[in-house]
Amino acid sequence: MRVLSAYVAAAVVIYLIAYYCYKKRRIESAGDLISFNWVKPLFRWGVGTGVGYFAGVLMAEFLDSVHLHVKKPMLLVLVVAFGFVSFFIAQMFVEKGFRVFCRRRFCESGLFVLFVLGSFWGCSKNATYLEQYVPDADQVSRVEVSLDYPVEYKGDSVRVARQAQKILSHAEIYRENKTDDSTQIIFYYYLKNGKTLSRTYEIVGGNETLSELLFKEENKVDHFMEYLFGTDSDKISKFSTGTLTLNESSENYKDCDFDADTAKKLYQAIYEDAADQKLQKYNLTNALKDPEETGEYSSASISLDYYHASADWKNVYDRIDDYYGNTGESVETPTTYGGSAYISFGKDCTHIIQTLIDCGVITDVSDIQFQRPEEKTSQG
Q1: Do the Cβ atoms of 167 and 134 come closer than 8 Å?
Q2: Which of 255, 269, 335, 380 has its CA 20 to 30 A from that of 195?
């Protein structure tokens, strides 16, 4: 009822203002676009500013889509240029003609350009403040940081996410040279008051400090197992079947299936290799590290079919739905018990290889053709 009353009150005020202006208008201005002289500069400046920002951002987005990434100075040039042109186009509508270029109007346009420069500076400062805002640790319930995959930070680990965001938000050098190979990092904050907050950053090239902070968390065995099997990974006990790919090349593709008992034993072997930090590099890219340092690894793959302990589970990407659910967007949650996981592994994953030998899936590690990514092919 209060909202309705507010709308009615606003409508009455607008009507009274319109009626007053109607009674005060000059008869000789009946055919003009704008009847009141004091409104004309507001019209010119309003159109110039609005169209300038809209067209400037739109042009920057277009250039970005064709891989010509626009930096802040260039965006300012676009906004001023489109605003300047729009200012005089608006005056053409006011004058109902093309004779709008006079000394008085050029002087006014100079003041208009100064206004646009000032407003751009203010918007830039406000955007920088919002970008650099990091909630206090005592306000945060948990944080999801999405890099290779979303990792949940709770309790004491919240400080790690906050520290990483502070590094990103205060380091323009990581983001100013945007390219097609930029790495996107998203922080989803879930605050104790029920509100949510997200920040997105795009950085170029490796960053050892961020890599140490964030990739270290991704590598932790519990987080990594949740990434592979879902949030109830520690409760999974029932398995169906699985497949080992012996050769993934297009000419000699070969695989073999194994039973539920072998799948269960392989699940434990996967956990043990992940705990030894041997499995992660075959399944995660670590985009924050220098590509020349990470390299590509020769690997093979296995897939496991299993059953979740209950329907109340999520994969790590579905956890982000909690964020969008708080913003009012519709989300879907899993309702099935069945699940499957695809895992790449290498020769140094000794627990997986020994389990495959012990269960009779292979006789020796030489049965498996470990291949680099470019040597593999997907099978439909």
Answers
A1: no
A2: 335
Whether this model's pTM surpasses 0.70: no
Inform me whether the pLDDT recorded for 355 exceeds 90. Answer: yes
**For residue 114, pLDDT beyond 90:** yes
333: its two tokens: 């949650």
* 174-201 tens-digit pLDDT: 445 555 566 778 888 888 888 888 888 8
Residue 200 CA to residue 308 CA, distance in Å, equals 32
337/244 Cα distance (integer angstroms): 23
Confidence of residue 205 (pLDDT cuts 50, 70, 90): low
Phi first, then psi: what are they for 73, rounded to 5°? -60, -40
* Backbone φ/ψ region at 107: left (φ over 0), alpha (ψ -120 to 50), beta: alpha
Q: Given this model, what pLDDT does residue 95 score?
A: 78
